[in-house]
Design brief:
Keywords: Digestion, Disulfide bond, Hydrolase, Protease, Secreted, Serine protease, Signal, Zymogen. With 248 residues, this protein is mostly beta strands. It has two domains: 2-20 and 37-126 and 236-246, Thrombin, subunit H (Beta Barrel), CATH 2.40.10.10; 139-232, Beta Barrel (Thrombin, subunit H), CATH 2.40.10.10. It has one helix and 15 strands, in the order ββββββββββαβββββ.
C-alpha cells in the first residue's frame, strides 16, 4: 500500500545534524484521554518534540527536531507514568526535508520511519493527509506537551489541546514581515493568550480530520500580533512535492 505526502521530494539519506531548537500550549485545555491517538512524543531520554503517526511505520514531525536516533512513544496521555496504552518504538531512519533551512525554518518537515510497525488500536491511530490546503478561518486542533506559560516554564505531563483558526496569508505576513514563506502558515489569535509553545514543536495541526501543519516557530508564545507559525504539509502538485512511502 502506498502513502503519498504532499510535502516536498525528500532525499533518502540522513542530513547532517543541527542544533536542537525545541521551539514552540498556552491557553489551551487538557485533551480528553486518548482523544488524539495520532499524537506521538519524540523521546531521547526526555520528551523533546511531538509528531503525528501517518501510517503504521511513518511519523511526520518538524525538521528542527532532528536527532539521529529517536524513540517514538505512541499511545501516550500522561508522559510521566505508564498507563498501559503506550508503545515505544525506535526510529529506523530520520529524514529531513532536503531544502530545510535552519536560518528561517523554511521546509520545516521531517519523516521518521519506525523500526517496526505500530499496532493500531483505539489508543494508537493514524491521521489522514490533506487533499488540499485548509482555508483561512478553518478551526484546527493543535496538541502537545509543550510549555503552558507565556512568561515562565510550566511543562505538563498530560497532553494539552488548543482549538485555533487558520489566519489569512496577509495577517500572517503582517505579523512577521519578510519571514513567511510559501511553505508556512499562521494559526491562532492575534490578540494573544493562546498559542503553541516550547516543547510542542513537530506536533500536529489537524483541521477537519486532516493533518494540515506541523508546529514550527513563532515569536515567544501567545503574544499579541505574534501567532504561531506552522509548516505546511500539503503542497500543490505543479511542483515535485511528493514522497512515496511503501508499506510492505
Amino acid at each position: 500500500m502506498k502513502y503519498f505526502i504532499l510535502l516536498a521530494l525528500f532525499a533518502a539519506a540522513f542530513a547532517a545534524p543541527i542544533e536542537d531548537e525545541d521551539d514552540k500550549i498556552v491557553g489551551g485545555y487538557e485533551c480528553r484521554k486518548n482523544s488524539v491517538p495520532y499524537q506521538v512524543s519524540l523521546n531521547s531520554g526526555y520528551h523533546f518534540c511531538g509528531g503525528s503517526l501517518i501510517s503504521s511505520t511513518w511519523v511526520v514531525s518538524a525538521a528542527h527536531c532532528y536527532k539521529s536516533r529517536i524513540q517514538v512513544r505512541l499511545g501516550e496521555h500522561n508522559i510521566a507514568v505508564n498507563e498501559g496504552t503506550e508503545q515505544f518504538i525506535n526510529s529506523a531512519k530520520v529524514i529531513r526535508h532536503p531544502r530545510y533551512s535552519s536560518r528561517n525554518l523554511d521546509n520545516d518537515i521531517m519523516l521518521i520511519k519506525l523500526s517496526k510497525p505500530a499496532t493500531l488500536n483505539s489508543y494508537v491511530r493514524t491521521v489522514s493527509l490533506p487533499s488540499s490546503c485548509a482555508s483561512s478561518g478553518t478551526r484546527c486542533l493543535i496538541s502537545g506537551w509543550g510549555n503552558t506559560s507565556s512568561s515562565g516554564s510550566n511543562y505538563p505531563d498530560r497532553l494539552r489541546c488548543l482549538d485555533a483558526p487558520i489566519l489569512s496569508d496577509s495577517s500572517c505576513r503582517n505579523s512577521y514581515p519578510g519571514q513567511i514563506t510559501s511553505n508556512m502558515f499562521c494559526a491562532g489569535f492575534l490578540e494573544g493568550g493562546k498559542d503553541s509553545c516550547q516543547g510542542d514543536s513537530g506536533g500536529p495541526v489537524v483541521c477537519n480530520g486532516q493533518l494540515q501543519g506541523v508546529v514550527s516557530w513563532g515569536y515567544g508564545c501567545a503574544q499579541r500580533n505574534k501567532p504561531g507559525v506552522y509548516a505546511k504539509v500539503y503542497k500543490k502538485k505543479e511542483t515535485p512535492h511528493e514522497i512515496k512511502m511503501t508499506r510492505k
